[in-house]
Structures are given as C-alpha cells and as structure tokens.
Fold this protein.
Amino acid sequence: MTFQPGQSGNPNGRPKGIIDKRIELRELLQSHAKDLIEKLIEDAKDGEPSALRLCIERLLPRIKPENGINFQLPEGGIETGDNMQQITNGITDAVASGQMTIDEAEKFNEFLKRQRWNLEEAERKKRDEKWKKERGW
C-alpha cells in the first residue's frame, strides 16, 4: 500500500502544536536549575552515591577509545578463509580476555565483513575487465 503525496501515513497521529512532555518538564525545572544543582553538589559532598555518580559523570565523561581497535591480522590479511577463521578466533579470545568489548567486537566484525565484500567486488570487477579485454570490448 502506497500513500498519496501530501497525505499523512498516520492521519490520527499527534496533532500539530502539542508540546513534548520532556520539553514541558524541562521548562518547569529551568527556573529551579541553580537550586537543584547546588543540592546535587551538596548531596555528593555528603557521600550520596547517586549524586556522586552524577557529578563525576558530568565532570569526567566516559572516555572513548581514540585509537580504534588494536588487532593483529594474520599474514595475508583477510583474503583467505583460513585467515578469516583465525581472525574470528582472535576476536573471540580478545572478548573473553577483556581486551575488547562485545560492542567493539561486533563493530570490528561488521567492518571486516564490509572489507571482505569490497575485496570480492574488486576481484569480480577485475575478472569482468579481463573478460571484456579478451573479447575486445
């Protein structure tokens, strides 16, 4: 089923002019922001764990790795099935030993899949070009 141009896919959706509840609440809190922050700091100084965590998270946000993933590829890179099997085992070992998070491993694996696909695509193009050249196209 396709929708007609200019016709909403959800005609009973949110009416125009409705303010998001989060914005409404933020506006209510805005006038009390200074007092709330001072109270949070006071609670943190008194050792309240939740207040401490909030303050520390604001002062020292989580550091993201800047250098990417450090992973040694086998000789020959990702071009052979045996190497890909070695890489997969290496990723699993890195996660199991805590050197890599599961999220990092999944991202790295997706990256490797794209790279493998790019290599295969390049090989297909080379074969096509060779085939065309042989036939004088």
Remarks:
- The mean pLDDT is 86.
